[in-house]
Amino acid sequence: MCPKLSRVVVLLLLLHLVVKISSKFEFTNVECISLDKTFDDFEYCFLKSVNRTYKYLSLKVNLFKTPITKVKVNVALFKRLNGYRPFMYNITVDACRFLKNTNSNPLAMYFWEFFKPYSNMNHTCPFDHDLILDKLAVSFVNNRVTTVLPFPEGAYMLETHWMAYDIDRAVVKIYGTLS
Q1: What is the domain partition of the chain in residue ranges?
Q2: Interatomic CA distance for residues 76 and 93, integer angstroms
Q3: Is residue 164 packed enough to be buried (19+ CB in 10 Å), middle (13-18) or exposed (0-12)?
Q4: What is the C-alpha to C-alpha distance for residues 52 and 111, in angstroms, rounded to an integer?
Q5: What pLDDT is recorded for position 9?
Q6: What's the DSSP call for residue 68?
């Protein structure tokens, strides 16, 4: 092998390794807002940092008027560029219809798979129980935003509006950085 070619191969391998380990996602904040306290309210909504490598998100919303048979979710991704600006995705999904056939909307499925393994919201309507997202690990989110569908570096906010019977009932904002 000629020396120039071996240098190029070594350089390409080093660049590949640097790219592989350079991206890292971190939660920075979470906000949970109930817009109709007679319909629902958040029992808890927090980020917890157990140690330097294990941080997770948990929330629980108590539903007061069950069963709920008609749910829509609006998911919007924002990137911080002199304030938070819309970035790539803003979709509204009929959750009851989507949960009957999750393959019907690939984009909705991408966002749903973020919390599916950590939530009790993995069945079709009606919802007749409190909704829980338990210990969504930053390592799981990091894998999804760096490997499954890579995002550019920056500060992001995922804003979700939860609507029941076409009335906006709750807003959850998840903030994070990808560096």
Answers
A1: 24-178
A2: 11
A3: buried
A4: 26
A5: 57
A6: B
Q: Listing from the earlier edge strand, what are the strands of the sheet with 55-63?
A: 40-49, 55-63, 131-137
Is-above-0.85 flag for pTM?
Answer: no
Band the pLDDT of 178: cuts 50, 70, 90: confident
Which two tokens mark 65?
A: 């008027």
The pLDDT value given to residue 6: 54
Q: How far apart are the first and last CA of the chain?
A: 37
Tokens encoding 30: 């979470």
With helix as H, strand as E and coil as C, how does 71-127 read?
Answer: EEEEEEEEEECCCEEEEEEEEEEEHHHHHHCHHHCHHHHHHHHHHHHHECCCCCCCE
DSSP code string of 132-161: EEEEEEHHHHHHIIIIIS---SEEEEEEEE
CATH fit for domain 24-178, picks 3.40.50.2000, 3.40.50.720, 3.40.50.300, 2.70.220.10: 2.70.220.10
